[in-house]
Amino acid sequence: MLPLSFLLTLLVLMSTCGKHLFYRDRKEWNDITPVPQDDNGRHIVNIAYSEEFVDAHDYFRAVLLKNELSERTFSLTSEILLMNPANYTAWEYRRRIIKEISSDLNAELRFVGSLIEEYSKNYQEARSFGRLL
């Protein structure tokens, strides 16, 4: 059986049919104040992040600062890692969440395996994470 968090992530991704549902528009995230990226004015080159990327990462930084280890943060890390599977911080945070919520490790190994398969050039973080499981 797949864990609830995995099913919720799939449901959110499928229900939007290719259209991102911004975290700022999700009722279950109303209690979180997003934390924008702060480069301290040191922009050598501005990176053109998509609005979806900025939205998800602003909420990711917020829950990371609060150290919230929950089903919803687990789902958020799924989306973050689908956007950037080389995000070491997201992998580490996800590991801590899994320890806290006792997620289904078999489903997690399938998720990691699918990312390794899809993004073979960025497999290092996913592979290291899989070893920790």
Instruction: Kindly provide the name of the CATH class.
Output: Mainly Alpha
Low-confidence stretches: none
CATH second-level architecture: Alpha Horseshoe
The counted number of beta strands is: 0
State the secondary-structure class.
Answer: mainly alpha
Instruction: State mean pLDDT (0 to 100 scale).
Output: 80
Helix/strand order: HHHHHH
Amount of beta strand: under 5%
CATH superfamily: Protein prenylyltransferase
Residue share in helices? 55-70%
Rg to the nearest angstrom? Answer: 15 Å
What number of structural domains do the residues give?
1
**Span between N and C termini?**
18 Å
Keywords: Magnesium, Prenyltransferase, Repeat, Signal, Transferase
Pfam family, one: PPTA
Protein name: Protein farnesyltransferase/geranylgeranyltransferase type-1 subunit alpha
EC number: 2.5.1.58, 2.5.1.59
Output the keywords.
133 residues, 6 helices, repeat, 59% helix, globular, mainly alpha, single chain, Serine Threonine Protein Phosphatase 5, Tetratricopeptide repeat
Characterization of the model:
Pfam families: PPTA (PF01239). This is Protein farnesyltransferase/geranylgeranyltransferase type-1 subunit alpha. With about 130 residues, this protein is mostly helical. It has a single domain (about 5-35, about 45-130), classed as Protein prenylyltransferase (Serine Threonine Protein Phosphatase 5, Tetratricopeptide repeat). It is built from six helices and no strands. It has helices at about 5-15, 50-65, 70-85, 90-100, 105-120, 125-130. Helix 3 packs antiparallel against helix 4 (about 90-100) and helix 5 packs antiparallel against helix 6 (about 125-130). It is globular and about 40 Å long. The two termini are about 20 Å apart. The model has no long low-confidence stretch (mean pLDDT about 80).
